Each structure stands twice: as C-alpha cells, then as structure tokens.
Amino acid sequence: MHQTVPYSAVLDELEAEAIHIYRETAAAFRNPVLLYSIGKDSSVLLHLAIKAFYPAPVPFPVMHIDTTWKFREMIEFRDKRAHDLGLDLRIAQNLEAIAEGVTPFSHGTHEYTRLMKTVALREGIDRYQFDAAIGGARRDEERSRAKERIYSLREPGHRWDPRKQRPEFWRTANTQLAPEQSMRVFPLSNWTELDIWRYIQRESIEIPGLYFAKKRPVVERSGTLLMVDDERFPLDQGEVPEMKSVRFRTLGCYPLSGAVESTADNLVDLIAEMETSKLSERSGRLIDGEGGGSMEAKKAEGYF
Amino acid sequence: MSGYTPVLHLVTCGSVDDGKSTLIGRLLVETDSVPIDQLEYARTTRRGGSTVPVGEVDYSLLTDGLEAEREQGITIDVAYRHLNLPNGRRVLIADSPGHEQYTRNMAVAASNGDVAVLLVDAARGVRPQTHRHLTVCALMGVQTIIVAVNKMDLVDFSHEVFEEVMGEVRTTAARLGVEQIDGIPVSAVTGANITTKSDDMLWYKGESLLGALAVWEPVGRVANEGFRFPVQFIVRAQGNFRGYAGTVVAGSVRPGDEVMVADSGRSARIDRIVTSDGDLQEAKFGQAVTLTLDHEVDITRGDILASGSSLQPADRFGVDMVWLGEEPLAHGRSYLLISGSRSVPATVTSVRHQLDVVSGHEHAARVLNMNDIGRVEIATDRPIPMDPYEQCRDTGGFLLVDRVTADTVAAGLSRHAMRRAFNLVPHDYEVDHQARSALMGHPARVVWLTGLSGSGKSTIADAAVRKLHAMGIHTYVLDGDNVRTGLNKDLGFTPEDRAENVRRVAEVSKLMRDSGVVVFVALVSPYRSDRETAASLFAEGEFVEVFVDTPVDICSERDPKGLYAKAAAGNLPNMTGVGQIYEPPVSPDLILRGTGDLEASADLLVAAILEAKVVRT
To answer: Exposed, middle or buried: residue B148 (CB in 10 Å: 0-12, 13-18, 19+)?
Structure first.
C-alpha cells in the first residue's frame, strides 16, 4: 500500500516553488520590492527571500505600508527585524489622509482602508518606481482568491483588470510589462494557513508576540474583541477595558483586528488550537465584512 | 528514490452540468478542507435553481465564483484549490470551466497536471467535450486520466452503462497515446465511490476516487532521464562566490558530476550544491538550489545546465501551439518567445495544420484563432536549446508574448528541433557591406516610409531619391505596389499576409543594403509589430523609420488608385484606414506631413538623413 507523506515533504515543495518565484522576480524585473506587513505571512515571506538568494543578501528593498494604527508591538518588531537583518526598509504612508485626521473610528472601514492602505501602497510604489511588488497573499484566504494568479498584472493606475490576467503555464512566467503596467507577485499562493504555522515552527521563524495568548486589555464591540492598544481608542462612557487572555489570528490595524480568547502561548498549543477550530482566517478581520464581494472590489482599486 | 509525490497536481475537467462543482465541493468537505464558516454558508444560502434543501450542504456553493465571472466575460480563468488526503498528500486542484470556448483554460489547468479527473455524465454518455478534454490533457502531458463516470444513481448503478462509456473513452485515449486511463463509477450527489467504496456497485473492484489519488505514483519519469537546470539568477557574494540559482526541472545531480552548458557546449563539473540549510549531496527533481562549478564558464540567466540525454541549440522548431490571444496568429510577425528563464524574438514561419480537438482530424490552416490548437514551425532569432515537450515540460514548453501589448498570446510545445540552424551556416564573405560602402563612398541604409494609402510615401521617396541621386548616392525604392505584382503576388491583405509582405520586403531591403545602396521602402505596413520585426533585422542607426502622416479624409479625397472608392462601396474589406486599423509609429525618426509642399518634404527627408549622418558623401 501507499506510504504516508510527512508534512515536511509538502513544505519542501511549497518552499521550492516560492524560491523559484523569488529568483524569477528578482532577475526579470527592473526594481522589485517586498511588501512587508509584519504578520506571520510576511515573516515567512522574508525568511524565504533570505533563503532564495543565500549566500548573497536579499537583492531588493522591503516596504511597509504604515497606517499609524498598527499595534505598537508590531512596529517594534518591524524595526528590530529590519535592524537585525540589515534590510533596506522603506515606509509608505498616506500623509495627506493622516493630516486630515482619518482614523478607523472617524471613517468607515472601507474608506479608511482605501485611504490608508490602498492609496498609501499605490503612492509608495509610484514614488520609488517599483515595477513588481511581492506580497504574501494566499489562495486559501478567501474564495475569490482561488483564481488569483501568482504573477498578478496591474494596469496603469494599479488597476486590476480580470480580463488582462495572464494564463500561467508550467514554471514559466511572462514577466514582460507594457508601459505603466506593474506586477504583484505572490510566492505563497499555494500555501495554507496551517502550512504557514508548520513552516514557522520547522524553520524557527521569529514572529510578533501578538500571535500568542497573553492577558491584554480588550473591549467587546458587536461580538468582536478589540484590544485597547493606546489612548487613541475611544472608549464609551463608563467602558473599562477588561484583561483577557487573547491572541490574534491575523495582525493589522489594532482597531480592526479581532482577538480570540485563547490560552495558547506557544506554537505547539497554537497549531493544536487552529486544527480544532477550523474557522476561516479572515473571519476575525473587520475590513472584509462590508458588502458582498468586498475583497474583489478592493482589489480592483489596487488593494493587495 | 521511492518516487512518492508529496504534492499531486490535479486538473478537473467537465462542465457544471456534469456535476463537477458538486464533485469538487464534496471532495473538499469530506477531506475537511473547508473552513466551518464557509460550510455554514453553503448550508444556509441558496442560489436560484438549487434543489438542495436548506440545512444540507449545497456543494456547488463552495466552488462558485466562476458563474459571476462568466457574466463579466472573463475568458481565461482557472481556479486553484487544495485538499489534504488522509495519508498526508497535498492535492492542488486546477479547475477549469468546461465549455467549449475554454480550450485555452483547459490547457492552462492541464499544463501542470499529473492527474486529470474527467467527468462524464453516465446518463448522457460521452459527448464532444469529452473528446476535447481528453485531447487537451494528452497534448499537455497529463500522465494519468481518471474518468469519473458520474450520476451512476440515475442509471441504476448499471455496470453495462459504465463499461459502454469507458469503451468509447478508451478508444479515443488509445488514439491519443494517453499513458494511463482508469474509470471510476461515482455519484457526486450521493457520495458513492468518492471517499469510500459504495455498496451499490459491488461489481466495481477498483479504488474510490480519493483512494486512487492517494496511491497514484508517476509512471513516466524514467531513471535514465537527463538532468536539466535552467539558470534563473547568478548569485554573487563575498569571497568570490559565484553560483547559479535555479530549479532542477528534470533528473538529478551530485557534486563531481559533469554538466554541459547547453547553449555553448562547454562543460564543467559540479563543485557544490548550496542551500541556506547547508550543502546537499544531491539535488533532485523539483528542488531549488544554487550550483557552483569547478571552473569558470561563461553562463548567463536563461542558459540550461544539462547532462544525460543530448540537448543542442537550434533555431527552427516544429511545435504544437495553443493560441490564447484575441488577435489571431500572424506568421511572419515577430513575437517574444519565453522558454524557462530565457526570452528570444521568434517568428512563426508556417502553419502546418489545425487540430480538430473533437474528431482528432488535422485540417489545413493558414491562421490560428483563439482556442485553436495547431502544428506550426517557428524560427528563433538565435539558436536556443529546447527539449521535446514530452521529455520535459519546463524545457520543452514555451510562451509567445506580443511585443507591443506584452500579453501572452500562445503556449507552445516543442516537438522537434529542425537542424537547419547547423546545416545553413552563413558564409562570411570578406567583401562585406562595409567594404562595399567604402567603395560607394557612403554607408548603406534602409529608409522605411509608412503611412496610409495615398498619403504620399512613393511621391516623397521619389523626390528624395532624385536629390540623393544628384549627390552621387546610390539608391533604390522598394514600392509596395511594385513588389506585390511580382515577389509577393501570392499575398493578400489580411493581417497575416500583411505581416508576411513586410517580412519579405524587409529581408529584400536587407540584401540590397548589403549590396551597398540606400534603400527606400514605401509600404503602408500598418502594424507596429510588423515594422518592429523589420527594424530588428538592422543595427542601431541602419534603419530610419519615417511616418508620412496624412489624415485619412485627405488620402481618400486624393485616392490615386481608386481604392478608397472601392472600400466605400464595400468591395475592399481589408482597406487600411477603412476596414482595418493603422497603428502609427510611437517614436519615428521623422514625421512628414503628406499635406505639405513636396519639395520641402523631400528636402526635410534628405536633410534629416544627412544631418543624422546616416549618409556621408
């Protein structure tokens, strides 16, 4: 009868595929950039970039889209990683929106995300004239991502036109760009959330502590636990944050990232918890909630 | 190596009517590959037409999305999903819509496939699209085809019906040379023979569908296959480190093995197999590594390191091609060919035949349209090594890319290299075009005038030639109409024929340039990519593109040949500017207004040539 396949063998294949994509991107594009969002997927992405070009350093810069509403711990983690690894870190922000006082509380999540993430990303790419932006999106994140390409073409103005997406054959990539086109590249397309965690465990990859359970000050809003990460969080009258043992499944802007109650304070417990819960990953993300097909619409605007 | 496959690439073919969404949805649910909130959605939400009671899982909802896309008119679409088998094997599913206009989607999905699951509706039997699926899977090199004869519950789980379907499928598969074909009687709705064996069909002795996927092993990868390693990236690091990064796409290699650079024929031995986790003693199929060699050899990105079976460069290939572009294939037009990490300009020199994917017959054809599959011959600008596709997908498959839009317009499968590249060695004559130019007293050039019919190309060329002639410069004019009465009298005015017309005129102008004269070409040449092909024959500065810019209403008013009148009467459907578009040059070397004074235009042209030091007297 057939033998069992060790999980590590699956990870080896996914790793080889991602490294292949990295090398192709680095060689074929004039000025690629790694979009680093500090979370677990970005941590894996960064680890793979280092592996792909070893013993040479990563041959492109790393850019973070900073909305100024990330968890403080994330920013500390980012700066430490950039320092330890000697990364060429660029920060992109929508300064205009920040000056106008756009916050996740003052604007709807859709408008906030468009201004602080999508516009900031587009401006960052334009400012540095990057022609390829490497991101950590995975096809299992959402149903509409199932047909996303590994090399996802963007038209002038960063527009995603489903009709222009290129068919992908074998390992062969068409990396040619017409004037003002650019590419988004997703080396983790075929990974699952569990693959990410198993790989983090196998490779001992550093990730922010927010993924692990710890007593944190939270309030409950419409059934979602939100962490009061700083004094900008507008508490209702008489509302007092409660200390609960929580962790985060995905990291983003703290007012938009729902926490889950958990006691998993290490990788082994965390993976065990994940395997039993089976909730889809984005269920804790508030930005996907507004309206049907909202991810689709955001992508057409140039969101990652 | 025991040959186990951690990740199995599966392609699913069949239409919604065959129950494909239900089949895939059930596979996902029964292997626990669907998050519970999505499962809840499939229990509670209902779309129009669904007959599944609320509370039960409507499997088709787990894989939807394609319907909406179809409404939007998206025609290239393949959805990628994954599931985990109980033995730990990962299955990556490439799912393509089954309707007949989606041949190209099927080709994409099948290009990476190890196994195809082909759905046939037991009640409706084998249909034309079944043949189409078999043909595309066989063409793209899918090793194993599992025919899932679905809806067995509707035919009383009849053994005879199953055998009848399989008999017909096997006949087609044998003609196509499919390596391995298995049949499984299933019912996606009841779950029969999907994850576990069904009691309703005890006559069936084989595996369930999931069982078949779990035990599948590759049959084709023979032990003595050659090693193939396309170089993607040159890694340079401290301590004079120079390594070649890439993925082993065939065979394996160890330190000490001799490998050859397929492009140059030079060889070296593998020194180290470098990874960030330490050096390896062997690099196997599918591994991404960095190789160092025992001595310095000239290697650039795109070169292939090879050993074992022979791999030699050629510049002409017989290939099968799946046409993906909305514009039809134009032979004579230059495309960018991408093979692995290499890209090189290439032209399709002839279309041999088109394949009828239903009957398997080959029809004579001159063009390929979107979704067509055909046998063509291509010529590359310089010799490149390509394996026959059936030996290695990564070194035998290639893409053709439109050089202006950058769209992928075709997927090609190399079938055989034609050795003409080695048989036709251009003789290096000592008296070359520079020697002739020296004797003439001026360098030779090609001046290419493009513009609408009636824009004044020939008139301006004639005037400029008179002036140059008077200055003692040797000239000749290749005029579109004159060439079409002789050399090109077999060509019409379709985009393909126009491409061939331009190609021949460009080649003739190159021969005449070699003879030392200044060649004027006066040709409508409406397509940018055709003109780029012509320009690519010449070195920088040898080719001068002149745009004779005259508004179409003035051209049609002049109408020196009466063509616009004929077009207006509907007798010339391919008339440039009327029935066909004209693509003006993006950055011509000179723009002349055809409405301006003739002598002044001719002076401008001559002056531009002289000032650009194109011609020195």
So the answer is: buried
Each residue of B182-236: pLDDT tens digit? 999 999 888 899 988 888 899 999 999 999 999 888 876 554 578 999 999 999 9
For chain A, give the longest Cα–Cα distance: 66
Q: Which two tokens stand for residue B448?
A: 């290419």
pTM for the full model? 0.78
Kindly state the DSSP code that residue B91 receives in the 8-state scheme: E
What CA–CA distances, in Å, run from A232 to A68, A76, A239, A254?
Answer: 11, 18, 14, 11
B326 with B369: CB under 8 angstroms?
no
Say if domain B227-307 classifies as CATH 2.30.130.10.
no
Q: Does A144 touch chain B (CB under 8 A)?
A: yes
- CA-CA-CA-CA torsion sign (A110, A111, A112, A116): positive
Element (H, E) at A54: none
ipTM score of the complex? 0.89
Would strands B518-522 and B475-479 be described as parallel, antiparallel, or unpaired? parallel
Q: What is the pLDDT of residues B323-348, one digit of tens each?
A: 998 889 877 788 999 999 999 999 99
Surface of A (168-207) touching B: CB under 8 A: 168-174, 176-178, 181, 189-190, 192
Q: Which candidate from A10, A56, A140 shows the least CB-CB separation from B236?
A: A56
What is the fold, at CATH topology level, of the domain defined by B313-423?
Answer: Elongation Factor Tu (Ef-tu); domain 3 (2.40.30)
Distance CA A271, CA A277 (A): 10
**Nearest residue in chain A measured CA to CA from B401:** A174
Strand residue runs (E) in B39-179: 79-84, 90-95, 115-121, 144-150
- Which DSSP state fits B298? -
For domain A7-197+293-301, the CATH architecture is 3-Layer(aba) Sandwich (3.40)
Contact B370, B326 (CB under 8 A): yes
Are B465 and B477 spatial neighbours (Cβ–Cβ below 8 Å)? yes
The position carrying tokens 């294949």 is: A13
